[in-house]
């Protein structure tokens, strides 16, 4: 059974977030990415595979090397969700603040 992966899954791991951050600067091959982490090259390869499955990076072949390139459109899912949650909770906290101020005024 194949696990459905999305941008939320991709950014849940600090190593994957680090890889994304690196790739926003420039495309890199797997060895260059792996040099920046204290995990095995195989572990970095698995993280890269997850990022690719989530649609956050593409891998392009140049000669013998495979270069990873950031493709961050899928992160819009995350920013949209965060904006919706922020709006929802802002309304709730404002209502709570109004209620608490009303109670406090009535006690005086």
Walk me through the structure:
The chain has five helices and three strands, in the order ααβααββα. The model has no long low-confidence stretch (mean pLDDT 92). It has a three-stranded antiparallel β-sheet. The chain has a domain at 7-74: Arc Repressor Mutant, subunit A. 63% of the residues lie in helices and 13% in strands. It is an alpha+beta fold and 108 residues long.
Number of helices: 5
Order of helices and strands: HHEHHEEH
The CATH homologous superfamily name of the domain at 7-74 equals Winged helix-like DNA-binding domain superfamily/Winged helix DNA-binding domain
CATH architecture of the domain at 7-74: Orthogonal Bundle
> What is the percent of helical residues?
55-70%
**CATH hierarchy class name of the domain at 7-74:** Mainly Alpha
Give me the Rg, rounded.
21 Å
Q: How confident overall, as mean pLDDT?
A: 92
Class derived from helix and strand content: alpha+beta
Reported for the largest beta sheet, the result is: 3 strands, antiparallel
Uncertain spans, ≥5 residues at pLDDT below 50? none
Strand content: 5-15%
The CATH topology of the domain at 7-74: Arc Repressor Mutant, subunit A
| Global morphology | elongated
- According to DSSP, the number of beta strands is 3
What is the rounded distance between the termini?
A: 63 Å
